[in-house]
Amino acid sequence: MINKRILLLVAAFCLSIGWSIARPAEGMWLPLLLKQLNEAEMQQKGFKLTAEDIYSINRSSLKDAVVSFGGFCTGEMISAEGLLLTNHHCGYGQVQSHSSVENDYLTDGFWAMNRQQELPNPGLTATFIVRMEDVTTQILTGIPATASEAEREAAILRNMTRVRKESTAGTHYDAVIKPFFYGNEFYMYITETFRDIRLVGAPPSAIGKFGGDTDNWMWPRHTGDFSLFRVYAGADNKPADYSPDNKPYQPKHHLPISLKGVQEGDFTLVFGFPGRTNEYLTSHAIQEIYEVSNPAKISIRETKLRILDEDMKASDAVRIKYAAKYASIANYWKKWIGENRGLRKANTIEKKKELEKQFEQWVNADATRKQQYGNLLHQFEQSYQQLDGITIARDYVTEAAMGVELIKHAVDYIRLVELVESKAPASEINALADRLEKAAPGFYKNYNAPTDKKVFAALLDMYYQNINPSYHPEAFTNIAKQKYQGNFGKYAEDVYSKSFFTKEAGLKEAMAELRAGKTQVFRNDPAFVLANSIFAHYRSQVLPVYTKVNDNLNLLYRTYLTALRDMQKDRKFYPDANSTLRVAYGNVATYEPVDGVKYKHYTTLEGVIEKAAMGGVEDYVLLPKLKELYEQKDYGPYAVDGQMPVCFIASNHTTGGNSGSPVINANGQLIGLNFDRNWEGTMSDISYNPDQVRNISMDVRYMLFIVDKFAGAGHLVKEMTLVTDDTSGLSHVDSKSVAPARKSKRQKKREAAKQ
Predict the structure, then answer these.
(1) d(CA 695, CA 671)
(2) Which of 253, 416, 486, 708 allows an S-S link to 64, with CB 3.0 to 4.6 Å?
(3) Interaxial angle between packed helices 624-632 and 605-614, expressed in degrees from 0 to 180 and rounded to the nearest 10
(4) Could you tell me the pTM of the whole model?
């Protein structure tokens, strides 16, 4: 009996250790602070390197292989010759820009078989982080505690300008300073931005977007969501504008690629630039998001997507014009649906209320705290009440009004007209006019007026019907009372037949008159009149209230975070994501979305075949070459036990902006490419739930397989560093020396048996 008890105790202890190691880790952590906050926990979870290996200013480290791709995604260096890996959906706009009906790279894919075939992308950048600094003291110096929010903000901006200038003087570097914890702390990122980025390869959309909207934000996934670019530099290996004479950039570090793959429980690290999270919102804010804002935005985007889908299916030309736009609109439409599902499933609002109840008890237990924070939660409640009607009005402006391309385009010219009429300096007028004229061809290249006219009629009708009339712009009153009688279809016919904004030639003629000082042609244009009415109402009736309340909320949250950190002294707090470099870590893990259903942690090419065989789902297209490779099991050295891995899931805390982030194993080697989250897990932007949140990544071996066996671009694989063991990712091995040994032991045994 004693021995049995001992065995039970040992088993329980082992289970508790296993749980502590495998338990998902919440947070998007600052690389600068990993040593003091996270290193021990990361190593407990299986990490075999150190915080210094991740972020160092004294030697090359993992951070030197990670870039902000275009300012909207993440990418990573995977060769010593500037080869950059990111998501297919991150490079989608560039692939589209090079596509036409004759050369449909979106459908067919693109592969540069030599450096001369690589395609330049004007305006695309890749930004490296040189170093980080805590500049809180410098930014907050000289600001009295009694300063108003406006005074505080003005002083902060002055100090930011000074610190940035001093920090980059005499260098080609830039500096970015961002507030953290609602302005309690400030960190500066010194950056180096490269401007010559060329497209190297992208799979066909049937691979890079396999599953499309059907599978977006879902698991299991079978998507080869990757594209390849190359960073070019001047002769001195520093940033330079595009030139045929530029050379491939030689990074300080590039990620070796593991052929060993992943197993359940393996440590994973995601390194990238997450865009925006709001983890410390009160219950009042989350209730507004869940009940008001998300449902409205979902409905608006759903309407627009239906119209675009109909026209894209009817015309290849329209499909190419709107492919990237459609994907962008659909992405957050489905995300918001999943976010609401996740918030409901996790009972998030009630959990926040429970935290607030505990906060009140803590505050009331001490007289000093009661004086400081006693009215804080009541102030939150009052502030969100002031936003009643304002938030939804703002959502309809940004989603419905600005969801009409004609209106959004016309809004861009309001400021220019105002400058001309106010007789502003010619240099200021010309600078803005030049910028708008330079951007116009790009707008019209991807614009189809008949499609936009349908969107106009549908979205403006929603705007008119679903918003309190007190928040209607003046133009809506005229539409309802005069000849249109609230018929937005009839109104759309009139606007699109008369507005010069529908055609590039018409805009050019109007701009010529504007440059001559004549604004009447704009003032008479129906699209401009409507856009100006909407924008004027927004600026006078919505934005001032929204800004004032949110300025006050920022102060309240800054105070709330200070108090929470005091109340929960043993808790490690991480700042909300704000497009700065962060580290998230966790483990490869299975997922149970609903009762009775459990998903394994990986998928294979078998799943692509199975989905394609379903029939009737346009997002499941199986390309003949991929089918042939599957039937022949021609996977090269990238398969495991005769199966070709495609994707896997882990518990890393990610968000938008992490698209394209490297997923790195315990040894600092690249094992995957982050591209999505599970549907209910999208609520992690607001509240992390370890039972729900999974990040979805493409297995890097699938990328190698597609590049090598499908595309026949093995020359790209040869410049990568491939490893088959646990060699540290910070001591590179020549891929040529590794290539002959890339077969697994099981594969060798099978081949030997056949012989």
Answers:
(1) 14
(2) 253
(3) 130
(4) 0.85
